[in-house]
Amino acid sequence: MPTARNLLWLFAAVLTPSFVNAAGLPDSTVPGGLGVNIHFTDPKPGEIQMLAAAGFTWVRMDFGWNSTEPEKGKFDFSAYDRLLASLDPHHIRALFILDYSNTHYDKDLSPNSDEGRAAFARWAAAAAVHFKGRGVIWEMYNEPNIFFWRPKPNVDDYAKLALAVGKAIREAAPEETYVGPAVSTMDFKFLETCFKAGLLEYWSAVSVHPYRQSPPETVAADYAKLRELISQYGPKDKKIPILSGEWGFSSAWEKFDAAKQGKYLPRQWLTNLSNGVPISIWYDWHDDGSDPKEAEHHFGTVHFQEHAGRDPLYDPKPAYAAAKTLTSQLAGCHFVERMHVGGADDYVLKFQKGDEIRLAAWTTSATPHDVEVEGDFAAVGHTGEPLPDKHGAVLHLTDAPAYLRSAK
Description:
It is a single chain. With 408 residues, this protein is an alpha/beta fold. The chain is 30% helix and 23% strand. The chain has helices spanning 4-15, 47-53, 65-68, 78-87, 114-130, 155-172, 188-196, 219-233, 258-274, 318-329, and strands at residues 34-37, 58-64, 93-99, 137-140, 177-184, 205-209, 242-247, 280-282, 302-306, 314-316, 334-338, 346-353, 356-363, 369-372, 377-380, 386-390, 394-397, 402-406. The chain has an 8-stranded parallel β-barrel with strand order 1-2-3-4-5-6-7-8, surrounded by 5 helices. Residues 1-19 have low confidence and may be disordered.
């Protein structure tokens, strides 16, 4: 019999179009696959409302083994019950990361023994059953190809664990969505080893973290290479998409600032949409500190300082305004094609909602310039500022996306 929380999720799903395929993944309809990483299970008053106002429909959060199996064989998922209860009214789904270690197994290192792997798999399956039918995506670990796998990365140990978890989840909750390996950067050697081990039999999608300081559009070649590997090693009758499970740009990196970060967020999301990537999780929701020289403190869409009792709770950065503008300007639209307009550096993406055509347009060229498009459009800049309506088939491209709706 459905539990109360299951009924709440089902009720929310009825109220809002799900745009979900058989694997539990969204299609290319905006904003169905757009979200942010968070670092909490108990949001501050007003926090989820601010997330929802930007159009985020996903959060990605650590689902820590150590905190949810405090005693051997005893599970406590109450913190994540509370988190989902706060997300459900706003129709925000969760991607939970099955991660890290437990003090009761393998000396608190990443699972590397038969006992540790079996325990991790039992815990993961129990979590999948507990939250069955809630629309959760379960991701196998976080960046196991770098220091998060302790004492040091070991792809063979990771693959053994991921297989054990895949088998356990498929037996206990076969309809739940299970993905991996959430690698840091496009680590093709690590990915191929996972595929050779047979993990594509269990994963509904391949998740990657395509970090770089080059423009977001450079990821397209990496996605093409990864698709070739998936095609080579995956089951022939199974479609396995790529997820951008974590990716952002720090506003404190050299030659970066908050304004440039605000341009790169929509370009990243639009690039992913145009490359058939159904989920794009931006890192991070809010800045994790205020040290101007610490890059790790400045990946957020909003600033670090909380203003309790105030609306908004956090001061938005340009990235927040850019996310809100994209999700509102393209709401309900699905990606159609990249139009052949201008040169190789010019991006004019066509979206459609019913009979209405909308465009997202920018250039990676260092020099803003004009290109020709057909039709008359009302235009909005990447942070919501009105732009002059576009008449006479002339469109001015800059490094910041502009959104155009066909004029009535």
